[in-house]
Design a protein that fits this description.
The chain is α+β, with helices and mostly antiparallel strands. About 45% of the residues lie in helices and about 15% in strands. The protein has eleven helices and twelve strands. The protein has a six-stranded antiparallel barrel with strand order 4-5-6-9-8-7. Strand 11 and strand 12 form a beta hairpin. Helix 3 packs parallel to helix 10, helix 7 crosses helix 10 and helix 9 packs antiparallel against helix 10. The longest helix is centred in the C-terminal third of the chain and has 34 residues. The protein is elongated.
Length: about 425
Amino acid sequence: MKTSDFYFDLPPELIAQTPLERRDGSRLLTLDRATGETKHLHFYDLPALLRPGDCLVLNDSRVLPARLIGKRAGGGACEVLLLIDRGDRVWECLVRPGRKLRPGAKITFGDGELSAEVVGEVEGGNRLVRFDYEGIFLEALERLGKMPLPPYIKAELQDRERYQTVYSRVSGSAAAVEAMSAGYGVIYPLGLICKVLFVQLVPKFLRADMAEERRRVLLPEAGPSRPAGRIRLDEWGMGVFSLTVVLGVLLGTVPLPLPGGGVRLGLTGGPLLAGLLISRLGRAGPLDLRVESASLAPIKELGLLLFFSGAGTEGGRGFADILSVWGAKLLIGGAVMVIVPLLAAFCLAYGVMRMPLFNSLTVVSASVTSTPSLAMLVNMTGVDGLGAVYAAVYPVSLLLTVVVLQILLRLGSGWA
């Protein structure tokens, strides 16, 4: 078979450059399988062609805006057309100009919102391109991409929805991403509320003596005290705090190597670990790295206020819409998936391992990688040292979460 077998004459004057105002006015070619007769009808004739018992197959996938216009690192425009998702942020693509986009070439799209690197070349000349982005790739694609119109369509598409069928619901490979985004949009605020309430309600439910529980808290031994540095950036240690934030953000962006792709500690785990390290050091040569507790108290309060306000504002935007589509099953299932691990972890730590109450709640917060729960627990108990307990469990929980998710995905694809 040759590609020339599919060549046919298509006069340019017969190619519609813009869609009809009424979709059902589009032409419909029918074929009688018994006689071979063809007819030229319109889509509004379709109901008359259907008989009881007929099977009508609808294509409800959406066309991705898979054409990206970018800039090469060395200067000059380029074009990338996504073809196949190869996993681990790598797509097989058509690129132009091909001679300028060899393996190692770097590309930016949308003023740096999306960046990419050509990491390989496959047989036939297509390139393997690895994309770097924050958030959900398909959302960035919706903002930056263009519809991959056929080369014989010269007019620019004004309304993207006119390139989709009226039945379209999800982007072919984006169905799973939409489901995950919908689930996350509901479960994240629900889970956040449950975790924060859990650490507050458990002591009340157990009628715990808060003063006695504070005394029983087990903290890592401080070790021999180190002499304070001679030089302080400022009286309250805010310069050191600012340095901790910057180092923490940088630490949170460093990917931890794992099978199937690196994982980052992000803007919660990175600053937490940086703060613990700097606090443990206490000094760097003559520089005093201590921060006064009186300085940290209002910062922690403000941080909690901003975080929960932001989480509520973001989650509330689509909460009702998602529930109207996915129903109460998602809400009930999410609540069960949040509460059961919390109870199981607490029973193991407090009931089986006999940890003190506040240690147990800290371990529970770390096991579900909930830094806001830790902040609420520290605020409630006044025991800042719980952060060290959290930090001992958090990295292991984060890594295990990623590994287990990968295992479940592979098992799920095998069952499918």
